[in-house]
């Protein structure tokens, strides 16, 4: 089903990084909608609210955030019922060069891939080839 | 020597006469505690964490001295253990060393000089091993901080750089001047954040490694400096900045540490305001009385969630998503206060504001 339109969610405590991701996503031509959240808790509430009604969505989540970090977010997401989760494809982003973080990402079955920051047009186009 | 300077020792023996003669012989040289059973000895150990040397009789009705030493070693590993016994068979000596980890073994009836030298040697050993334990703890703390530091540095220093690179990439492909203008503003913020972080690191090392320079402090001058620094911030953010100073007596302290403390608390007070709120304020009040300076920084900003209050002084802890926080500021405040012998208390209510109250003694 390549080249169909997709929904996007970006979770990053940095306003600037949300803005960058939003722009790049809009420029791909594959964007049906993009929502940005500076707090992971709000993104989680949004996903819960949509419930099983959610359409195919790509999620980019930053690892290091205050209050609820990326790992905590993924753990909370994985605790949701299966039919609430099936629409989402999760990608984790970080500026950290920490091997532990990168290894930890592999432990989460719902996370497709770890991406380095900053998100670039070419990185996103590679991701989108799968959809 | 006063009782406080004397080495504190504990002697356990089931025979009251031995306790009396021991105390009579050594009370002038040592701070002697005695116990005629092991329960009493445990109470002494519990109430006197500064006991350096424990001497115990081997043959007691409830348990042997070796058994007692073996039992207390996990909870009280530091005091040096000396065993006194009239029945010196090789078996009990081996047990004493292997199980009780005794430092010396003294035969009864004792010779005063033997006891004295055993206590003094034991005390030396106690001091050396305690110092080592303290140094090891400090070293471990430094390592932990270094780990955290390396981890955070990649995020907090690379973060803004990567953001700016991302924006540059976007801007290169845009012909919309307004968009590019907006992006420049964002890049500026990212760089300010990085700069703020680097200044915090500078403060951190100043406090950590810098010498404390005690001089006469004139709080009016310091407050005037703070007014100058925050004048623009106050105007731009429409937050009133009020100050009060009362210093009827001389006060001595380290000016750089004081300024680091005030700067961090004030910049937080201005940063964590409720954007849309009317009548925003930050109030700084300093009063000196009876050799103690009481500094109060009060705001009606966003406040701190109750669950976060106990963590706010930890390195890199951030209680909110506010973008410019580095998680470094209050850690530096606490560190600086530690150097000045000061204390800090915080009262806060979410949505209503925060009060930091600091007390610092004059040096």
Q: What's a quick, concise take on this entry?
A:
The complex is a heterodimer of chains A (131) and B (363). Chain A is of the alpha/beta class and 131 residues long. Chain A is built from 6 helices and 5 strands, in the order βαβαβααβαβα.
Distance between the termini of chain B: 27 Å
Question: CATH topology of the largest domain in chain B, anyone?
Answer: Heat Shock Protein 90
Low-confidence stretches of chain A: none
Beta-strand portion of chain A reads: 15-25%
Beta-strand percent range of chain B: 15-25%
Examine the coordinates and then state which fold CATH places here, giving the name of the CATH topology of chain A.
Rossmann fold
Alpha plus pi helix count of chain B: 10
Strand order of the largest sheet of chain A: 2-1-3-4-5
* Shape call of chain B: elongated
Number of helices of chain A: 6
CATH class of the largest domain in chain B: Alpha Beta
Shape of chain A: globular
Instruction: Tell me which CATH architecture of chain A applies here.
Output: 3-Layer(aba) Sandwich
SSE order of chain A: EHEHEHHEHEH
Multimerization status: heterodimer
Instruction: Please tell me how large the radius of gyration of chain A is.
Output: 14 Å
Mean pLDDT of chain B: 88
- CATH homology superfamily of chain A: Response regulator
* The CATH C-level class name of chain A: Alpha Beta
Could you give the topology of this structure?
The complex is a heterodimer of chains A (131) and B (363).
Chain A: E1 6-11, H1 15-27, E2 31-37, H2 40-50, E3 57-62, H3 70-78, H4 82-85, E4 88-94, H5 99-106, E5 111-116, H6 121-128
Parallel strand pairs in A: 1-2, 1-3, 3-4, 4-5
Chain B: E1 8-12, H1 16-26, E2 31-35, H2 38-47, E3 53-57, H3 65-72, E4 80-85, H4 90-98, E5 104-107, H5 112-172, H6 177-209, E6 214-216, H7 219-236, E7 239-246, E8 252-254, H8 255-271, E9 280-289, E10 292-299, H9 306-309, H10 329-340, E11 343-349, E12 353-361
Parallel strand pairs in B: 1-2, 1-3, 3-4, 4-5, 7-9
Antiparallel strand pairs in B: 6-8, 9-10, 10-12, 11-12
């Amino acid at each position: 089903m390549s080249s169909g339109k997709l929904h996007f969610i970006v979770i990053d405590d940095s306003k600037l990084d949300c803005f960058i991701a939003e722009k790049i996503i809009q420029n791909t031509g594959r964007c049906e909608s993009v929502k940005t959240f500076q707090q992971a808790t709000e993104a989680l509430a949004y996903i819960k609210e949509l419930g099983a009604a959610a359409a195919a969505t790509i999620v980019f989540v930053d690892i290091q955030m205050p209050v609820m970090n990326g790992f905590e977010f993924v753990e909370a997401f994985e605790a949701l019922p299966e039919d609430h989760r099936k629409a989402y494809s999760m990608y984790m982003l970080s500026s950290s060069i920490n091997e532990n973080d990168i290894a930890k990402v592999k432990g989460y079955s719902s996370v497709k891939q770890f991406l380095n920051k900053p998100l670039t047009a070419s990185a996103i186009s590679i991701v989108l080839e799968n959809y | 020597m006063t009782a406080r300077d004397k080495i504190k020792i504990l002697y356990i023996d089931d025979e009251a006469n031995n306790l009396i003669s021991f105390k009579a012989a050594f009370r002038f040289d040592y701070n002697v505690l005695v116990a005629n059973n092991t329960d009493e000895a445990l109470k002494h150990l519990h109430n006197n964490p500064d006991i350096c040397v424990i001497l115990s009789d081997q043959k007691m009705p409830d348990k042997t001295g070796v058994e007692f030493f073996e039992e207390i070693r996990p909870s009280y590993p530091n005091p040096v253990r000396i065993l006194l016994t009239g029945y010196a068979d090789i078996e009990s000596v081996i047990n004493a060393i292997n199980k009780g980890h005794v430092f010396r073994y003294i035969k009864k009836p004792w010779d005063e000089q033997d006891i004295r030298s055993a206590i003094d040697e034991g005390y030396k050993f106690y001091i050396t091993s305690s110092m080592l334990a303290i140094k090891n703890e400090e070293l471990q703390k430094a390592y932990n901080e270094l780990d955290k530091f390396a981890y955070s540095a990649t995020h907090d220093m690379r973060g803004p750089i990567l953001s700016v690179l991302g924006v540059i990439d976007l801007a290169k492909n845009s012909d919309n001047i307004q968009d590019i203008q907006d992006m420049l503003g964002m890049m500026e913020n990212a760089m300010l954040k990085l700069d703020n972080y680097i200044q915090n690191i500078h403060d951190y090392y100043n406090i950590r490694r810098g010498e404390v320079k005690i001089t006469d402090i004139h709080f009016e001058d310091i407050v005037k400096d703070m007014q100058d620094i925050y004048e623009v911030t106050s105007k731009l953010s429409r937050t009133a900045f009020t100050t009060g100073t009362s210093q009827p007596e001389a006060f001595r302290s380290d000016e750089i540490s004081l300024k680091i403390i005030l700067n961090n608390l004030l910049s937080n007070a201005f940063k964590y305001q409720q954007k849309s709120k009317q009548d925003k304020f930050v109030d700084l009040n300093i009063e000196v009385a009876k050799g103690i300076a009481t500094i109060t920084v009060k705001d009606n900003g966003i406040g701190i969630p109750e669950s976060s209050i106990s963590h706010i002084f930890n390195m890199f802890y951030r209680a909110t998503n506010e973008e410019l926080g580095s998680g470094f500021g209050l850690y530096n405040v606490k560190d600086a206060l530690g150097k000045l012998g000061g204390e800090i208390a915080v009262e806060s209510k979410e949505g209503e504001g925060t009060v930091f109250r600091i007390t610092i003694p004059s040096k």
